[in-house]
Design goal:
Helix content is 33%, strand content 18%. It is of the alpha/beta class. It has a single domain, classed as Alpha-Beta Barrel (TIM Barrel), CATH 3.20.20.70.
């Protein structure tokens, strides 16, 4: 059975001087998830925020599901801190060299859902051996680091392949897309198998954010 569609607006596209207000706008629009990009300036060429900011946001918007995406060279050093700060799903990248399966198990042991992430140039095959161990696979459809980049349609076959493996193995992980997602590109991803949609710029610039949430939820 395919999953229902979930919108996870990315706080990266919010007003950084008023992040709590931006998070409150996500809640007010009716989106169930909030996507939090954690960047270290090494794995990706940008810096965002750490566990303390996540903990403070957790107090401001207790009803949102926190989808925390670690874009870090050493995600294994920070999973515990983000779990304690209020993350409910913690995903990290396949590209850094570490014991991916052990970290996935640790994240679950911390009481969170887990996820594995692929950069655009990383083939789906790189995570195939982990699919039975994950709650979510996130496919980047832009090079991670900065918001507002154009969507890469050459990533659509990657969703189709991951969805095919999910069906063949009767697995239940969610398939998330992040990068250039709007009401047009998101439909294309849904058709290819995606069910969880990270939208930053398109959500925060939408003339009617609640309508945007409703449209994505209906896919």
């Amino acid at each position: 059975m395919p999953h229902n569609s979930i919108l996870a607006p990315s706080l990266l596209a919010g007003q950084h001087a008023r992040l709590a207000e931006s998070a409150a706008q996500v809640a007010a629009a009716g989106a169930p998830w909030l996507h939090l990009d954690i960047m270290d300036g090494h794995f990706v060429p940008n810096l965002t925020f750490g566990p303390q900011m996540v903990a403070e946001l957790r107090r401001e918007v207790p009803g949102l599901f926190f989808d925390v995406h670690l874009m870090l060279d050493e995600p294994q050093r920070y999973a515990k801190a983000f779990a304690a700060a209020g993350a409910q799903l913690i995903s990290f990248h396949i590209e850094p060299s570490l014991d991916h399966r052990a970290l996935l198990a640790e994240i679950r042991a911390l009481g969170c859902l887990n996820g594995i992430v692929l950069n655009p140039d990383t083939p789906a095959e790189a995570v195939r051996h982990l699919l039975a161990d994950v709650d979510l696979v996130l496919v980047m459809t832009v090079q991670p680091g900065f918001g507002g980049q154009p969507f890469r349609r050459d990533m659509l076959p990657k969703f189709a392949q991951l969805d095919a493996w999910r069906r063949e193995q009767a697995l239940n992980f969610r398939l998330e897309v992040d990068g250039g997602v709007d009401l047009k590109t998101g439909v294309e991803c849904r058709a290819a198998g995606a069910d969880t949609f990270v939208a930053g710029t398109a959500f925060f610039k939408a003339p009617d954010r609640a309508s945007f949430v409703r449209e994505v939820s209906a896919w």
